Amino acid sequence: MIDRESAYKELTKPDPDNPRAIYHDPNQSGGQRFWSRMKREPLIPAGALLTAFVFCGIVYHSNKRNTRQVQLWMRYRVAAQGLTVCAVVLGMYRLQQDTLEYNKKVENIRGQLEDADKVAKERAEFEERMREAEEAHEAEQGLRNRWRKGKDKQGEKSTFASEEAASSKRWYHYLYWSPTNSKPKDEA
Question: In sequence order, which ranges of 13-66 are alpha helices (DSSP H)?
């Protein structure tokens, strides 16, 4: 079974098999989080740097008044920005896939926690029923022992025959009625 603390550790630890795995380390600073994200998706910052380099080329050639080179570098800028946009889209797709995988992992752990809670609840209910049954059994044993002691003190033996004879009375005998007294008298 899994407990809540180990489930939290399981969800927040980095996955060595998948460096792009989503996890949040509360001890990370902003800079560490930035660099970990750059390592996770290296194409996006590379595309941004490439686009910045192309802009520098455009500025350089426009200062030299070389219009053919400026037009060429403008085409490079379009290509670099297109590649950067593709890298962002690819990164978003991969992030979505990682999120889906992470959500499956979370649901699996949540199911294990719910199962553990259910098992613990059922165990507690079972132990409560067992305790009640043991108390009832002890109470019945105590009553039976007191009843037997009381019969032995009166000199009667608790045998099956005497119990059968005692149970052969009709219901009206317990009310001290007799069948002859319950009949209506004839009025003559």
Answer: 30-40, 43-63
pLDDT averaged over every residue in the chain: 79
pLDDT tens, residue by residue, 96-120: 888 888 888 888 888 888 888 888 8
**Contact between residue 20 and residue 90 where contact means Cβ atoms under 8 Å apart:** no
Written as one string, the DSSP assignment of 134-173 is: HHHHHHHHHHHHHHHHHHHHTT----HHHHHHHTTS-GGG
**49-86 as b/e: b if 16+ CB within 10 A:** ebbeebbebbeebeeeeeeeebeebbebbeebbeebee
| Separation between Cα atoms, residue 113 and residue 105, nearest integer Å | 12
If one counts every other C-beta atom within 10 angstroms of the C-beta of residue 173, the result is 11
Contact at 8 Å (CB) between 56 and 80?
Answer: no
Question: Tell me: the pLDDT tens digits for 127-158?
Answer: 999 999 999 989 888 888 887 777 666 655 54
Measured CA to CA, the distance from residue 186 to residue 159 in angstroms comes to 44
